[in-house]
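Summary of Year 1 activities. Much of the first year was spent building the evaluation harness for sequence design. The harness presents a backbone, in tokenized form, and records the residue chosen at every position. We chose the following record to illustrate the format because it has been used consistently in internal testing since the harness was completed.
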């Protein structure tokens, strides 16, 4: 067929712009894949550390405070006394589908370290105005064993305070008492007094690697779709 009868090739409008948009989207997908991949690596490393440390034998708290990050989640033992009038109930805590609270009680070691001890989960009262049944802490000096937890402050979020003597919200209690605590707390596991062993201990985080690797592959798949789509659009012109 003569060239004069051939249909002229139409130039694709905004070709460079479309290619640049596709390139930007591909870069974003690759960034998303890398981000999810790194999150998966970090989570796996965290889980490995937790699984390793929770199986170790307990050590004295004083031995751990020199390098706290190296001992988080490991069992530690210390001696001191609880302050039953300085207590926090963190709401929105569930156990086997039941609503309840996490109980944190102020603790002072024999060497005058002040910290919070998570004494585990308790079920909420029958009504919103009914306080939960919280086991009273023993008076005097006791020994406790629990998992060392790092935190820059008390657990954040919404909470409802029921101090032992009705002083009000925890923020008011801290302001009035000028409480100062260490930058760590302890998830109580057991104590020298039988009443200290929680019926439901503070839960460990979920030790699974999560869906991050699958999400990373998903982002790579999206990048491939964008490249394929751009080629297909160009070919149809």
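For this record, the design step produced the sequence shown next.
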């Amino acid at each position: 067929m003569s060239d004069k009868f051939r249909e002229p090739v139409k130039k694709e409008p905004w070709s460079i712009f479309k290619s640049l948009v596709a390139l930007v989207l591909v870069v974003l997908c690759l960034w998303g894949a890398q981000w999810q991949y790194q999150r998966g690596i970090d989570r796996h490393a965290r889980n490995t550390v937790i699984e390793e440390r929770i199986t170790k034998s307990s050590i004295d708290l004083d031995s751990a405070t020199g390098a706290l990050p190296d001992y988080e989640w490991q069992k530690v033992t210390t001696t001191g006394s609880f302050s039953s009038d300085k207590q926090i109930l963190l709401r929105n805590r569930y156990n086997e589908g039941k609503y309840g609270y996490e109980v944190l009680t102020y603790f002072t070691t024999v060497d005058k370290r002040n910290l919070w001890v998570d004494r585990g989960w308790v079920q909420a009262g029958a009504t919103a105005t009914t306080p939960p049944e919280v086991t009273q802490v023993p008076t005097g000096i006791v020994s406790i064993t629990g998992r060392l937890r790092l935190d820059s402050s008390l657990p954040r979020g919404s909470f409802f305070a029921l101090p032992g003597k009705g002083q009000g919200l925890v923020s008011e209690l801290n302001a009035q008492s000028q409480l100062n605590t260490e930058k760590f707390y302890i998830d109580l596991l057991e104590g020298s007094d039988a009443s200290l062993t929680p019926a439901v201990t503070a839960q460990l985080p979920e030790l699974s690697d999560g869906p991050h690797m699958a999400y990373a592959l998903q982002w790579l798949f999206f990048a491939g779709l964008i490249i394929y789509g751009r080629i297909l659009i160009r070919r149809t012109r």
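Residues 58-196 form one domain. Quantitative recovery figures across the full test set are reported in Table 2.
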